[in-house]
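Work Package 3 (structural annotation) set out to generate three-dimensional models for the target panel prioritized at the project kickoff. During this period the team completed the workflow that converts sequence records into discrete structure tokens, so that structures can be stored uniformly alongside our sequence database. As a representative example, we reproduce one entry of 164 residues exactly as it appears in the project archive.
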Amino acid sequence: MNKKGIFQDGIYIIAAFFIAAIGILVAYAASDLMNDAFQDNTNIPVDTKSQFNDFNTKFPNIFDWVFMTVFIGIIIGGIMLSYIVPANPIIFVVMILFTLVIGGLGGYISNAWESSTNDGGLMQNSASYFTMTDFVMNHFLTIIIIVFLLMTIVFYAKPDGGFQ
């Protein structure tokens, strides 16, 4: 059976990015609360407080770059695999329809991200430290549609037309 996997995998990848982004924000919010408790506790040594504060300060920058690196890496990998996989002309129509479905899912995820980070609570405070992740998730619909259309174009931009 020749299973291309692009349809289900696209949905899984989009969901994984959303879950990872929310997970990073929750982890930072928890770390920030723990840091505040550590700094207020007089029984914890000053060195420990300093190390935990240093970790808490570096956390957003490190995980923001990790998120972006993985995001861009998966986009590049998807575009490269689109070129490698042989295509049938009928799949072009299916891929355009799938792009619309993925666009709808991307819009839903972008709206869910925006509503969860603009609620005025811990998530909003945490999101302000993750500028790149916040930008990607706020513009997820646009990015996903562009990437999937680019993958669709690359799918057929082969010397032999991609047909086999």
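The first helix runs from residue 6 to 40.
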